[in-house]
Amino acid sequence: MADRFEERSIISGIGQSEVGRRVTKGVLALTLDACLEAIADAGLKPADIDGVVSWPGAVSRAEGLAPPGPGSSGPGPHAVMDALRLQTNWHYAGPETPGMLASVIHGCMAVASGICRHVLVYRALNEATAWRQSTERVATAEAGVTGVMQWILPFGAFSGPNWMGLYARRHMHEYGTTREQIAQISLNARRNAALNPTAVLTKELTMDDYLSSPMISDPLCLYDCDIAIDGATAVVISDAAYASDTPNRPIHFEAVGSALHGRASWDQWEDMTTTAAMSAGEHLWSRTDMKPADVDCAQLYDGFTVLTLYWLEGLQFCGPGESGPFVEGGERISLTGELPLATSGGQLSAGRLHSFGHLYEACLQLRETAGQRQIPDAKVVAVSAGAGPLASCLLLRT
Amino acid sequence: MFPVPQVNDDNRDFWTGGRDGELRIVRCNDCGYYIHPPSPRCPQCLADDVEPHAVSGGGRVYTYTINQRAWSPGLEVPYVIAIVQLDEQSDLRLMTNIVGCAPDEVAIDMPVRVEFREQDEVYVPVFRPL
After folding, report:
1. What confidence tens digit (pLDDT) does each residue in A104-154 have?
2. Which of A56, A171, A201, B125 is the most exposed place for a label (fewest CB within 10 A)?
3. Average pLDDT for A291-308
4. Pick from A163, A395, A173: which is nearest to A291 by CA?
5. How much is the pLDDT for A361?
6. A264 to chain B: nearest residue by CA?
7. Does A166 contact B82 at a Cβ distance shorter than 8 Å?
């Protein structure tokens, strides 16, 4: 395998704030909690941080494919840099990327390029608070919808369940994927959440609960949707040379995937039985000699249950269209199965940290500090983020 | 009701063609490829000689979802959001609504025809089963 930029960096530190639906702290305070925890966990001080990257930054309106909703942006790098008086060589945030983990990949690039040695990467949301205060789910200008959302919002497709409901219906139509199969993603997440002291929803969820829950955007029901929370996660990405000096086990990047081979569009995506997970997954495996069978557990994106199915196929854990049978019955994806998924409870039960909860959990698993839900001897973990035309993924190892 | 698009020089033909009963899609005058959303250059042959043409208005449901959630106060549900593939070209698709039938009567591959929902001087193309 040729030289890869991601080999030149490690995750040296991780941090996570309080996460919940009724959090009293404000989102900047939560962000700083996560950032300071990650910096300390890396054995560093704020003065050591010379780069900051986040997703999507402090955007209240955007014309791209990731329109910010209330509480979905969090503080941008400028706010964090000023709050901690950081002195940086590079900082960046923006929503027009291959999914949210692009911020992590960007951090790796900053380190590999030599412009930074220790990059703080974070994601913060306060959607639980914001949604209690606002009825507007997607920002729309009073003068009319502009940009790519003009092809979506005038048809009442206000929210993610509408957009992914379209994809899910096509997958079910072409491959016979069933609601009972899709439900396993939600049931598995809830089972794992019961072993995670910081999870948001831990009460047992049954197949009957799932099947009888209200439809949001048919075929997606309430339990297909993740949980809005307030919270923040941060990691420090350091030069790999720092690996021998970290106080906690460093985590290495085996490969990253970010390719988008398809139209940069939700509504014009050609084959809705796939998402950008297909090209991002293929990209990832083209950058390593490892194979899907080498993965000990996977923290696949689950903003909606069906997205995990798309990622199972995109990351080639099963063939195209085979994700429904792959998860059927739930055993294979359980903590004792051949490919444990969403070991923290994922976004469906541990809260919508927009893939950074999955990233944090991957690091806990690789450090063997995941408590009761620890996968024995976890050495390789896949993490993914995104839906539709947005996708990025990481293969992390000890 | 649903948000309306802001009409400008780039999208005017699409959003107002319904006033004349026409669904207008930008097409490349060099190679004949239909381009949606509108673009000043053909993505197939890269020619910049493009202009709106009225299409037949016929199509098929590629996929759909039934929205059951009132995302804002007063939003009437359920309604059907669909991707319709127009008859002219296999990759010529629009997000739209299916109207004129019960939501549970909508099916993938169902043939549909365009009509227009007038809203604040904008003519939103929606589709009705044949």
Report:
1. 999 999 999 999 999 999 999 999 999 888 766 655 567 789 899 999 999
2. A201
3. 98
4. A395
5. 98
6. B37
7. yes
DSSP-derived letter for residue B17 is: G
B108–chain A Cβ distance below 8 A for any pair? yes
- Under 8 Å between Cβ of A284 and A255: yes
Residues near A326 by beta carbon (within 8 Å), at least 6 away in sequence: A312, A317, A318, A332, A333
Asked if A220 lies within 8 A of B4 by C-beta distance, the reply is no
Q: What is the per-residue pLDDT across A325-338, written as a single tens digit (0 to 9) for each?
A: 999 999 999 999 99
* B72–A137 C-beta distance less than 8 A: yes
Q: How many CB atoms lie within 10 A of CB A398?
A: 16
pLDDT of A67 higher than 90: no
Taking only the tens place, the pLDDT of each residue in A320-372 is: 999 999 999 999 999 999 999 999 999 999 999 999 999 999 999 999 999 99
Residues from chain A contacting residue B96 (CB–CB below 8 Å): 155
Beta bridge partners of B83: B63, B95
Q: Do A166 and B37 touch (CB under 8 A)?
A: no
- Give the SS3 label for residue B48: coil
Q: Do B63 and A167 touch (CB under 8 A)?
A: yes
**Nearest CA to B125 among B54, B30, B39?**
B54
The pLDDT assigned to A64 comes to: 85
Q: What would the DSSP string read from start to end of A259-286?
A: ---S-S-STT-S-TT--THHHHHHHHHT
